[in-house]
Structures are given as structure tokens and as C-alpha cells.
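Researcher: Re-running this chain for the archive, since the previous output was lost when a drive failed. Same request as before.
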Amino acid sequence: MSHAEHHISSIKTLTIVFGGLVFLTVLTVLTAQLDLGAFNVPLALAIATTKAALVVVIFMALKWDNKVNTAIFGIGILFVIVFISFTLFDTLNRGDLTNTTKGTVQDQQIQAEKLQAQEPDASAIQFNRTPQ
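Model: Regenerated C-alpha cells:
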């Protein structure tokens, strides 16, 4: 089996990508100084993903490689996004205890039965209507 020759990128392309990586690194440092609340982590991940994609596509020559390798890389990135999303959804809802009730399920059922026993039967209530 013969292997295809490696693609050799031009100095201009490598310099542009290097400049982009330096710019994104400076952007990372600057955004780390800002308090963006819930957007801190997604912004940092977006910048890091962009930097990683530049390295993989240009420096590791994925752009000129076999398309199967590109598909495998894309699927891997998709899974990383899914797993990080699940983690972020979990961490965003931690400490949210406002939707919980006290006691066990059995205690809640007993309380519900007691409340139903205390309420008068709706069919036994007579409404006092006066003719108009």
C-alpha cells in the first residue's frame, strides 16, 4: 500500500493561523478578566474549541487528509459537546432545592388522604340559589 504525500502548507497560511492562535489566546486572557456570569464557561469553551480546530485543521493537516478522518474528528467533537452540555445542565441546576417537598412519598400520600378525608364531598354541597 502506498501512502499519499503529506500536504505542505505555505508560510503565509501558517503565519495567519499562528496570528489567529495568538489573537485567540489574548482574547482568552481578556475574557478571563470579565465577569460574564453564566457565559464565562461557554465563552471559554468556544474560544478553546476554535483554537483546537485551527490546530487540527491546519497544523495537523486534517483539511487535506482523508475525509473519513474528518468525519471521525467531527463525530468526536459532537460527542464532547453533548457530554459537556449534560455536565453544564447538571451544574446549572445544582442547589436548586425549591422544587422539593419534605417527607417521603408515603408521608405525602398519608397527608393527601387526610386532606381528602377532611374535605366535604362536593356532591353533598347544596348551593343556595334564589330565583331572579
